[in-house]
Structures are given as C-alpha cells and as structure tokens.
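Chain A, query sequence.
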Amino acid sequence: MKYNLEPQDKLQDKLRDVLGEEMFNVCLESPEKATAFGWLFSFAIADFDQKQGISSVTSNELLKAKEDLGEEFCLWCSRNYSNLRNLITLLDSYVNTYEINKKNKEHLNHLFQRINSNNYKARAVSLVKAYKKDQPTNLIDLFQRINITLVSDLKGIFSQRLCADDESDLRGFMGWLKEDLMAVLCNDLQRLFNKPRTFKLMRSRAMGSTLHEISLDLGITRQRVRQIEKTLQNHFNNYVATFWPHYILSAFAETTTYVSVNALEEYFGSLSDVLSYCLKESDCSSLQWCSELNGFIIGDGHWYSLLKGYKNLLPEMLDYDFVDPLIHEIMLKFSLPISFKDTKTVILSGYSLSGKVYLKNKISLSQMYHAVLERFYPNGIELYNPSEANCFRNYVRRLFGEVNLPKNNRALDVRLADFTILCDRRKRILPSGVKVSLDLLNKIHEAIKASKKHEILFKELFETFKKELLQTSNISNSYFLQGLLKYTFADEFDFTRYSLKKREDD
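Chain A, predicted structure.
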C-alpha cells in the first residue's frame, strides 16, 4: 500500500490527535513508557474487539504495526513517515470498522424490535428451516452454538461476531419474522380451501366418506370427486414444497419432533380435519404420519424407524413392571429425541393391559398358564396339591385380571400337560426349566438304542445314569427322566406309565 507523504509536522499532528496531547508528549520523551503504552494499547484493542464483535483482521494489522514501535518509538516517529502514516490510516480504518459494526448492530436491533410478538415463543431453528428451505445457511449452527432456542432469544446474538453472509441471512430472517407466521399460514390454507364445495368434499374424505358417498351427496360422479381431490392435493403438495409450512407448525408445537392433531385443531379449528388429511396424503419427504402419537413427525424421522423396528422384535407379552426399565433402556440405546411418555406410547401401541401384563393379542388359557409357570414356578408345580392349585389360580388372576378358570384341579393339569414335562409324581415343569446337557441326553439315547431289551423301565434307566444326572443336571428322579425322554423322543419310542418300548422297526 502506498501513501502520499505529508510534512512531518502534519503527521505529528495526526498522531497527536490519535494519542492525545499528553500521551504524545510522554511517548516522545520516554521510550520505556512508549513501549508500555504500546502493550496497554494492544490489550485494549483485544478487549474492545471481544466486546464489540469486530473482525480481528484490522486489529491484527494494527497490533503488527504496534510491534514495529518498540523502545525506539521517538526515533520511529521522526524518521519513518510511511509507517507512521500507515499507523494513522489503520487507526482510521479501525474506527470506521467500529462505526460500521455499530450501525449494523443498530439495524439488527431495529429488525428485532419489528418482529411480531406472536412469533417470540417459536423455535428459531425450525423457523430457519422454513425460511431457508434447502438453501445453505450457517444460522442453524450459529443458533445452536450460542443457545438461541426461541425467537425471543435472538436479542442475544447482537454481541456475537458475525460474518457478512451470516449477518445478511439474519437480516432477512428477522425481516421475515415481522409477520405473524401462524396467521399467515392460516390465511394461506383458507385461500387454498376457499371454495365451499371443495372444502366439503375434502372434509368428507377426511372423515372417512367414500367416493361413492360423496358423489351422491354432491350430485357428481365418483370420477369427478377423485379429480377434484387429486387437483387440490397437488396444489397442497406444491404449497408444502414451496413454503415448508410443516416446519412453521413444528416451531410452534409443544415438542420439537412432531406436531399433534390436537395442536392442529387448536391452531386451525374447522380447517384442521382437512389439513390433517392433506398432510397424510402429502408426498413431502420430511413429513410422515405417526399413528401412535396421533401426529406428524417433522424431519427425516429416522428415530421413528428405529423405534418401530425394535418394537417388532418385542415379545407378545410384556411384564408390567418390566416396561418402564425397558423404555429407559430404549431411549439410551437410540438417543431418542422424544420424551419418556411418547416413547412408551409408541412401544405399547398395539398392546393392551391385562392385569399385570401387556398383551399384543388376546391369549389363551394355556398361554396364561405358561406365563405364570415361567414367573412363579421355575422348579415346577404340583397341581394335585389343593393349596398350590389355588395359589396358581391367584397368580393367574394377579397377572391377567379376572379370568374364568376351571375349578377342577384335574382340568388345570390336563391343560398344563400339553406344554410341560413331568418332573416328579404329579408334578410338572416347563421345558425351559430342565437343566441337562445335550451330550448327556445323547448318551442316554444311545444307551437305549444299544440295549438288547425291547422295553426299558424308567427306574432302571435312571439308576444307570443316576450319578451323572445328579451331578450335572436337575433331574433328580425317574419321573423327571421319564418326562424328559417322552418330551424329547415321543416320535421315536412308545411310552407307558413305567417304561418306554422300542418300536418294531427299530
């Protein structure tokens, strides 16, 4: 950069104007004080920058010029005219930058004052998405970095350093906010559905009426009903693609991730039914219907896909006491953006509470019995014992509510026999309660096959393997071994009360 040199006295006058008369004289008389002043000046600039949010480019150049001063400040003032002029020019530029920055902030503050107060409680990031749509912007990152949550928080951005692009985006965004956005959206929808017959048709469709029913009501053909609906839906889809109203709705909604139908009813009254119907039929990729939450998910909805996939893997029956810990685990696993209550609602949709368990479908008595045995009788149950049978009935009712159960213990035992294993005299256990290795079971099977006897007593077989069974399994008697063999090899051997028989083809 070149400068036109002026007489030394004029340059000194300019420097005197910048530094002040007293400091100028001090710097001429004392190089040490000039150096100290230089450092103080640098810290003052840095602090000034931080408070005013001014770009550091100018101040960095100024600090670099200051480093040239050092202890030879007096000689520098008298001999280095160009550098002195450079310093003065930089100081002028610095002051100009401050003035420009001050005016910009005043303009932003003016725009903030003009924001419609009905927009204050809306979420700023959601509104930025509606404002910018697919256009690139740094405002979202900026808002998240400095904790701008609501529109009313925008006032806190004036103390931040903003690049030209961010400042331009912010001006446009705040100018857009001068309108009551929900009122604008409501007016747009009213214009879209302004024809009474069209509105009646779409509302009838929203309420579940068929094309045939509407055609009879309006006196037109079903094909014409379909054409009107398709035309209006196309107009609506174009409106969504152009203005992204779902993000405006999201900004004002109770949650950040979805807009409930109840909220639409509150905002739009009689229009809400038609709006909900059109939103469900919309082809917008950043909008999807969630029946579990009775609302529309805004954004990519990836969390919803994960949640539904996990839900499909859950069993038909969930223990009531197990559900809340399960929900907490799911929320941590997927870092869900929805509340505990909403997560629980999604997971339990399709389940019904019956006593102390949630059921996907209506279950049979056998399934109820199985659940009770699994929970309360891991070591088996003796239903011929009257007190134990009554206790079993109480457990069934405790889990599943008032259930009509057979009063005859024999009837209970017959049903249990379909899916349990005999484990002692008149005692049964679930197959999952049997603890025996596959190797030992195969060994017993091979011994049966190798035996020359056609019929083998269970007591005899138990005595043969008694030591191994007692040491490595929970099979403690011949009845238990009988039950296990019958459960495992029913298709291979014939079973009597006391023995098993090989079949003739063996």
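DSSP finds 25 helices and eleven strands in the chain. Residues 1-8 have pLDDT under 50 and may be disordered.
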